[in-house]
UniProtKB/TrEMBL annotation:
Chief location: membrane
Its biological purpose: Produces ATP from ADP in the presence of a proton gradient across the membrane.
Name under which the protein is recorded: ATP synthase epsilon chain
Encoding gene (name): atpC
GO molecular function, one term: ATP binding
Amino acid sequence: MADKLSFALVSPERELFNGDVDHVVVPGAEGEFGVLPNHAPVMSVIKPGALRVINDGAERRIFVNGGFADVTPEGLTVLAEEAVDLDDLEAATIEQDLKNAQEDLRDANTDAKKDAAQRAVTRLESIKAAMAR
């Protein structure tokens, strides 16, 4: 269909989406950008945030953490380091996981444990922010 955008979202675990949509908003490293059918070619690094897929008036929000977005004449492909459908997450669970990660960060006694805990805190804060929007 000429009036639809071919869109694929792939993470290391699985393909989360593959189909035709009206519009996708990508959290690019230099800011959010929208992709419509017949968009000019572009490649962008993805920052942590909510990728929004708009189709037939409905919006699906997917948290992406790292990766690349590649827009070509054929469509949009997002290769995400991590991708989770925000509808599958519970705010209370994320809040508790964040508290646990912050506690782990306070209790970390080696650089490796501090780094791992800080990555977990940053990831969970990004998910929480994406859910709030």
